[in-house]
Every structure is written in C-alpha cells, then in structure tokens.
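Reopening this one. Same input as before:
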Amino acid sequence: MGRMDFKKVFQAMEDGHTNGTQIKLSELPSNLLEAFIPGYSLISRFVQENFGFDVGIIVSIGVLTWAIFTSVQYLFYLGYGMFANYYMSSVFIDDGDDLYDKILSWVAKQRMSERSRSVKAVSGSISGEESQRDFNSALDEHGIFNFSIWSAKIPPRYEPYFGVHHFWHKGQLFVFDRSRREVQHNTYMTAKDEELVKLSCIGRSTQPIKELLSHIKTWSLETEVAKTTIRRPSTNERYRQMGGWDRLRSKPSRPIETVALDPEQKKRIIADINEYLHPASPRWYARRGIPLRRGYLFYGPPGVGKSSLAYALAGLFSLDVHVLSLLDPSLTESSLNRLFSNLPHRCIVLLEDIDSAGLLRDDNSDDPTSETPKSKPSKQKDKEELSAETIANAIKSATAGRKGGPKHDMSGDQGGISLSGLLNAIDGVAAHEGRVLIMTTNHPEKLDDALIRPGRVDLQVEFTLATRDQIHDIFVRMYAPDGDEPASNSNGKPTASSKSASPDPQPNSSTIRTAPVPTPWAPAVPLAELKVMARTFADKLPEKRLSPAEVQNFLLSRKKDPERALEDVEVWCAALLEAKEKKTKLLKVQ
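Same output, byte for byte:
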C-alpha cells in the first residue's frame, strides 16, 4: 500500500512537469501526507474554510524540524561511530563467563543504576545483619515466624537494562553497553538469545578497562568472604560442548572443626594440600618430571563426613569446588576431557560415590606401566542381586535411549564413561595439572586397582563411625553459643582447625569468629558445664556404632534442650541399633 501511495506522489509530480506547471514547496507536505493519510487534503481544506487557518504551515514546520533532528541524529551517530572505532577501546564479556554476573552485581551498586530510567529488577538476597534486624518484625503474637513477611523485606537489586549507559570510575568515563544476540547452536536446536556486555573507554588502550575488571573481581571476592563456590558442568548447550562450568551457588564456608574426623588425620590432610598448593611446588614438580597433580580417596560408611571434609577444605584454602557426576547420561568421554581441560589453575574436583558411577571396564583400562592385571577373578553373586554398576549402566542406557534424550554429543561419542576414559581425563598426556582431585566412596573394595594406584590417588583417608571424642565435640558444637571458641575433644586436644593443625597458619574466612547471634533455640548453658554434659552424653553411646550424621540428627530434634538429649539418648540409641540389626538380618535372608 505504501508503494502505491509513493507512485501517486511521483505521478503527480510528473504530471505537473508535463503540463508545464510547477509544484510549490508549500504543497509538497500536503501531497506527502495525502499519500500516507488518505483524506488529509479534505481535512486541511475544511480547517482553512471554517477557521481560516492553514494547517500546511504547521505541517511544513514539523517536517522541517523532523528532517533537521533526523539529520543531526544521523550525523551524531556517524561521528560517534567513527570516534569509537579510532579513539575508543572495548572489552566484551558474554553471559557464559563468571565475570558477567560479577560485573552486573558491581554495576547494580553504582550511582548510575539509581539514576538510570531503564533498569531491570532482580530478586535480591538479604545479608546476615539485615536478617537479624528484621527477624522480630516477622513474628506474630504467638511467636510464629512468618516467612512471607520476612522475605517481603528483601529489596530487589536494580541493574541497567539493555542499552547504553555511562558512568565514571576514578575520574575515567566508561560506557556500559548491554545487549543480546541470537545464537544458533546447531541444526537440531532452536536459536537462543545470549547476553553480552561491552565496556568501553576513551583512548586507544584497554588498560583502564582491565584495571576496572580487576577492581570488580577484588570487590566480588571481598563481598563473598567466608563463602565457597560450587560449580557443575554448564547447562548451556553451547558452553557444555566447550567444557564450560556453571556457577551453581555460593554457600558459607564450613569450618574445618565441624567435620567429625580424627584431628591427626585432618592435620595430615591440611599439611599435604597446603604443601601442594604452595607457589614453589610447580617448579619442584617440574624439575623432577612429576605431574603436578594430587588425588585423595575418602572412604567410609555413609554419614561420616566425606563430602563435608571436601567442602571444608575448599573453604579453608579458598578454592572453588567443581562437582562432577559420572552418572550424567549426557556425559561422554570427550566432554569429560573438555571439562577437565577447562578447570581453573587451582580448584577442587569432587567425584562423589565413585563406586556407583557405573564405569565400563575395557581392554585399555590398565595403565601400561602398572602391574595391575587386566581382569580380576569374578565372585559368585546371587542371581537376584544387582550390583551398583549394573544399575548405573541400566539407568544410563534407559535415559540415553529415551525419545528426546541425549544420545550423543556433537563429536558422535556414545554416552557412558569407561574406566580408561576416566583415567585418561585424570592423568592422561593432556590432563589438567594443578587441581586437587577428591573421590568419595562407601565401598573402596569395589574400586579397580588401576583407579586408586599411587599417582592417581596419593592419599587414602578412612572415615570411621563416631568415636567418643567425636560425639563429645558434636554435642558441644550443637549447644555452644555462636562466637565461642572451637570445641576441644574430651581429652583436651585441639581440633585440626587450630593453629597447630596448619603448618603455615594464615588468616582464613572459615576461622573468623563473629559476635554471638541470639537465636530462639540457644540454651543459656555455660561452656564449662556444657563440656561436662558432653562427656556424660558421649559415655552413654557406644563407640564406632553410630555415624556422626545420626548423632547430629538426634541432637537437632532437641536443639533447645540439652538436658532432654541426655535423658532420651539411651532409649534412642537402643532403638536405632535394634533397627539396624533387624535390617542386617533381613538383608542376609534375602
């Protein structure tokens, strides 16, 4: 329709020239508006005849103003584009990078986010001080905590929306440009929008932007003090194919003294990792031709603190934890290698329950330099018994074969991880160096010798059921007010988190003590009396018959009343041990 209207205008102009007449400039706007707004000439004639006012004058002024504004805008953007190309520097950050979230968080704290007329609201988190301050306001007349009232006090975070924003930092003008782009991952998937941030500054050097990014990283580290970052393989298909890791969450670092393990064992582990992470270690390893890798195997019954120790070590040494599940049906050997290749220079890689990972043994599983036989004599098993490996492989096959499920990656590898594939990722020729590998298992006897040989697992740590000293420490930690000194065991020995446990003690976020925080269940029991009660509590329980998790769960249900815990512990212990015996007998019968 627009094309036909333009034809009318051009035809009218040609007819005017053909008839020897000339179209006046004052008539041009009317002709143009008539082409776009049918009936405009009739309206203007009606106004002229009844009110004696020429609408064309206003239209002419409006068209002229619009033309000038458009021309100035075009020239401005043209000049700005040329200036930016030759006299401005830029750094791009996409949303798959961890720095992207840090930049948005930092920008949200700046003044320009408060003045911007285009912002994006993001659900915020409330700090510890604010949560304590607003705690009483969320209690009703009966003392019931109303979570909706409390969460309503959490203000959202406002960050600049898509577009160009300007801000000053240390006397330097920066341009913050947030945009999104459509990315087609492959022929089998639909396009997906991905966000992009461009930071620019005046000058032909990117050094001011690099300094700003360093400042943002330092700021982010300071705001996340006493927290441990957990990462998992990326859920974004594009970054997953490249071996990317997503930041799952950051949680408060767990103090090392809260892990129920023999103090001497914790001291040994801390000293070993501390020596390995020392800046002089890479040179020492390289001179002797030893790969810079360190592996640990934590084994023992469920609930004894194997994974908890891994997270506590991460908080102690300020390392990120990269959690990897070998039961992921979309995980292939090529993607596993890419994930290990993209690990940071220093981190902890956690492989939980490695015995139930369903590793497929093949002829290449053995290290040619090892003396491990290629096959082990198989033991007789009951026909009705299914091993963990069989169940894991069945789950993988069923999930991979389900319609719409991931059957293979872009390289064409079939799902499932073989033992040789895992070994190649851990210590192959192209394997990553510098990481701390921690594997946990409930059944170390089920692991292949090739997986736990020296060089792949350098230190094996056995976790036992709760000893009397551990039960004593759990009781004191449960009822001690926040901010008190770390509990010592019944023999008066300090825990592994004390200064004697670390060969090179340094200030750490996990050992920082804060002021006591009042809670509705904190018992007012002096520490000396509490330790006496803890010894009595520990004497009532058998040693190495209960897991620390079971003891802690019992105390959690009585966290307001340590006296009641002392009264009920014997009955609870007898009932729990009786239930365990019945379960053991039932399993033997089956």
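So the earlier flakiness isn't reproducible anymore. For the record, The chain has a mean pLDDT of 75.
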